[in-house]
Amino acid sequence: MNGGVETALVIGATSDIGRAIAHALAEDGCALQLAARDPARLERETRDLRVRTGVAVTAHRCDVLDEDGGVSLLDTLDPLPDVAVCVVGRLGDQAESQRDIVAAERVMRTNYVGPALLMGALAERFERRGGGVLVGVSSVAGERGRASNYVYGSAKAGFTAFLSGLRSRLAASGAHVVTVKPGFVRTRMTDGMDLPARLTATPEEVAAAVVAAIHRPRDVIYVRRVWRPIMFVLRAVPERVFKRMSRL
Amino acid sequence: MMLAGWGRYPALDCRLERLRRREDLSGLLHRGTTLIARGNGRSYGDAALNPELTLSMLAMDRMRAFDAGTGRLDCEAGVLLADLLETFAPRGWFPPVVPGTRLVTVGGMIAADVHGKNHHRDGTFGAHVESLTLAGADGAIRECSRAENADLFRATLGGMGLTGVILSARFRLRPVETAFVMAETLVARDLDETMALFEASRDWPHSVAWLDCLARGAGLGRAVMTRGAFMERGALPPGLASNPLRLAPAGKLRVPADAPSALLNRVSIGLFNALCYRRGRARARAGARPVHFDRFFFPLDRIEAWNRLYGRRGFVQYQCVLPKGESEAGVAALLERVAASGQGSFLAVLKLFGPAGEGLMSFPMEGYTLALDFPVRSGTAALLDGLDDITHRHGGRVYLAKDARCAPERVREGYPRLGAFEAVRAEAAGALPRFASALSQRLAL
């Protein structure tokens, strides 16, 4: 029923997307390991999943901003999961990130350094075992640096490149890497933003796409297809033109 | 943003915010405005509207604990009944009381102290709530039950959100062996017969009647009654026995746009009522049959956005209850008044309630409740005022969860425990009524 996926780890499980992915995996009968920063919020999601789905759920505190990048999380996992999904991210405020290097560094570490180190550490174990699926939720914002969000975007670009390299490295090992670029998603992160309806997915749509990509491994997915041509065009615009599209 | 209840009248420009975690509430309370919590917007009138701050509880939708031995569930107030059914019905558990739609939140069911087709046996939803957590104006979160903060508990059942923000509740689900109700349809030729059928159906857990509100004279109060009881596994016909706790298929209709307001006129409503009556007669001849709980309890949920049928101006639902001794004369007077106005109600529903519960502002009392829908038009207001007079004359009251236009004195007269309610509310809120809605302001509560 769940294609050999017995246990899944969701890192960033208290985010709206993380929660939706955890629910979708539980529907498949998957045992869950939930990891997040805030123990109280993690407890809330853990209990909800247990009551609703009846699957086994364990809670694991993990903060990618910790000194060890949260990698000590991996020592608490028993068993090593068949699937690991990383939804960790922080949009931050671009203006603040421009002004304040502490804020900028937090965005960079949360979106790149932390998730990449975690995925790397998981990859070591998956490779040793000879199988498993790693899913990294990156962003279309990483496709090209834009004036309105390049601090966040550059970190996501780094994460996307890291995942791409990891995928090549693991290609022969039996382990697989999926990169997800959800586009706009209606979540806490985008609360109050005026988003174009056709381009905006729900967390449940992202979750369904992620679960599908786990069962039938894909390399890079956009949740709404319409993003693929948009990003194709956006990447093709010459830089001397692109730089003047400052409000993008 | 423009916000309205299910009747789409009135629509008010409200500041709407989502509560995501209980920790965020104290910040919102510190703003110093009044506010009202809002569930899924299924109260009909202005109960869940506050222009200053309307607090959506839909993101407070986590389940906290379930005891599979006793059926006790602890969940946050924004959990939808639909969610609850989807989660627990396949495991053989069903809520003790459900209203006519599953698109309501647990918090909304408590705030309106909703009733179902089983009120005569089981009381309101609130009667089954063991405890709830309530955030007060001081930001403190109180556990309320019959043993702890008991006055606040009684004021919160049916208190329309005016005592604070309901954050979570504990109540027990009931075991069911199947998802099917053995439903029987009966036809009554006049009000006498209809009421006699209710009396004769006291031992049935669920009963309700649809009234033909255009019938006059000798046929006044003619009705199609449905009564039912959850089926045991052994009673299911072979076709259903393989999967006795299945969920109903999701397929549904949707009203795509506002209907022109001329759609519901005397002729179409007359036709619809006549058709319902004939169909009821055919069903009555066919005898009892198994019906999925979804269809039995929530027939209108199958038509998404059915409130659009009433056109852009919306509609009001008039629901009142009359004391038992006054019911026959009162219901007859109400029906005559409606029939004489020529403004037929598309849906007219009659139900016999059991005794009143403990909620200080709960709607039900022992007697008959009548619910009528009217599109908002010129003449509607006068008709409804006329109905209020009849209700008042017979010692009845209107349901606040449906109301959008009743006068303050009528509500004061109809709810004798209002004084006690206001005392509890004042003590909980301090001098300033922080929890207020367009309804409470209109009714000077």
Please state how the strands of the largest beta sheet of chain B are arranged side by side: 17-13-15-14-20-21-19-22
Uncertain parts of chain B = none
The secondary-structure class of chain B comes to alpha+beta
Class per helix and strand makeup of chain A: alpha/beta
Into how many domains do the coordinates of chain A divide? 1
Number of helices of chain A: 8
- Quickly name the level 1 CATH class of the domain at 180-231 and 239-403 in chain B: Alpha Beta
Query: What CATH architecture label of chain A applies?
Result: 3-Layer(aba) Sandwich
Taken from the alpha-carbon principal axes, the silhouette of chain A is globular
The fraction of residues assigned to DSSP E strands of chain A is 15-25%
How helix-rich are the residues of chain A, as a percent range? 40-55%
Largest interface: A-B, 9 and 11 residues
Helical run tally of chain B: 14
The average pLDDT of chain A is 93
Biggest beta sheet attributes of chain B: 8 strands, antiparallel
Radius of gyration of chain A: 17 Å
Show the helix and strand layout:
The complex is a heterodimer of chains A (248) and B (445).
Chain A: E1 7-11, H1 16-27, E2 31-36, H2 39-53, E3 57-61, E4 83-86, H3 94-99, H4 101-129, E5 132-137, H5 150-170, E6 175-181, E7 184-185, E8 200-201, H6 203-215, E9 220-222, H7 227-236, H8 239-242
Parallel strand pairs in A: 1-2, 1-4, 2-3, 4-5, 5-6, 6-9, 7-8
Helix pairs in contact in A: 1-6, 4-5
Chain B: E1 2-4, E2 11-13, E3 16-18, H1 25-29, E4 36-38, E5 54-56, E6 63-67, E7 72-76, H2 81-88, E8 93-94, H3 106-111, H4 119-122, E9 129-135, E10 141-145, H5 150-156, E11 165-172, E12 174-175, E13 180-188, H6 191-200, E14 206-211, E15 223-230, H7 238-241, E16 253-254, H8 266-286, E17 289-292, H9 293-297, E18 303-304, E19 315-323, H10 324-341, E20 348-353, E21 367-375, H11 380-393, E22 397-398, H12 408-414, H13 418-429, H14 438-442
Parallel strand pairs in B: 3-5, 4-5, 16-18
Antiparallel strand pairs in B: 1-2, 6-7, 7-11, 8-12, 9-10, 9-11, 13-15, 13-17, 14-15, 14-20, 19-21, 19-22, 20-21
Helix pairs in contact in B: 5-13, 10-11
